[in-house]
Amino acid sequence: MSYVDMEIASQPDCWRTAARLATSVADQLPQPGERVAVVGCGTSWFMAMAYAARREHAGHGETDAFQASEFPTGRRYDRLIAITRSGTTTEVTELLAALRGVLPTTVLVGDPAALAADLADATVPLAFADERAVVQTRFATTALALLRAHLGDNITALSADAEVAVRAPLPIDPAQIEQVTFLGRGWTVGLAHEAALKCREAATFWAEAYPAMDYRHGPISVAAPGRLVWAFGDLPEGLAEDVAATGAAFVHSRTHGCRSVIGNWAAGRTPMDPMADLILAQRFAVTLATSRGLDPDAPRHLARSVVLA
């Protein structure tokens, strides 16, 4: 079993630990009414996107997400949250250094001894979710689980959904698919981008991601038999029918697309949380990799941290 397989399977326990930790670090996290920026790179950026949209929609305050290198230093915020597994990523450490004494910063980091922890005003250590794999899974979702717990989301229920997701059959055989497009709405747009990134990283696979409402404004043109559309969260009216008309396969945890996977489990229960659905997408990516003869622990051209000269 690969490292990434084991780390994917450990997410329910990591999320429960994060929920407990959220209480003790609450004063280091955004307070209601604060104007907040959240930054990261790659996977961490997509978690920032998900949290920013969820926090603002919940009424906790204006929240923006940025790739760390693209942070608009001329804007005024009450707090900046940085998400970084290694704590050494150049774009993140340079931004934290530039903001010292200018803006209160908190870093969520896998290695609390790393440079980012020294540069930030406050550190939330997530060493229990750090990873050996290059491809990120549990660290990033654990950071999001902690931030969601701080918003008041029910992480106990989320973790129960995750327990199902780590064991359930995949919704579709990856060997039958030549391309996948992930879709989301609101906070799940970030999850869609992350799912597509996992397919590209682990399996060098053609994967795209879009806001679900924008999908019919062009991207649907690549849908066809042998291709897959996978939607997270709320589904725009008529989208499933439009995808079906293309001949593409369709996966959605709240509709017929996943009946073979979670339909019996879902009967009489609320739908699977989109973060748990992301676990299925992570597993889909790893299975894609192994079916293509690739080692998901050795992704092409990638390292655990991008440290620029």
Low-pLDDT ranges: 255-269
Give me the strand/helix succession.
Answer: HHEHEEHEHEHHEHEEHEHH
If strands are numbered along the chain, what order do they take across the biggest sheet? 2-1-3-4-5
Overall pLDDT metric: 93
Oligomer: single chain
Q: Would you count the extended β strands for me?
A: 9
Secondary structure tally, helices: 11
Shape: globular
Structural class: alpha/beta
**Secondary structure: helix percent:** 40-55%
Largest sheet: 5 strands, parallel
Q: What is this entry, summarized?
A:
The chain has helices spanning 3-9, 11-24, 43-57, 90-99, 115-119, 138-151, 155-165, 188-203, 239-246, 259-266, 274-291; strands at 36-40, 63-67, 79-84, 105-109, 122-125, 179-184, 207-211, 227-231, 249-252.
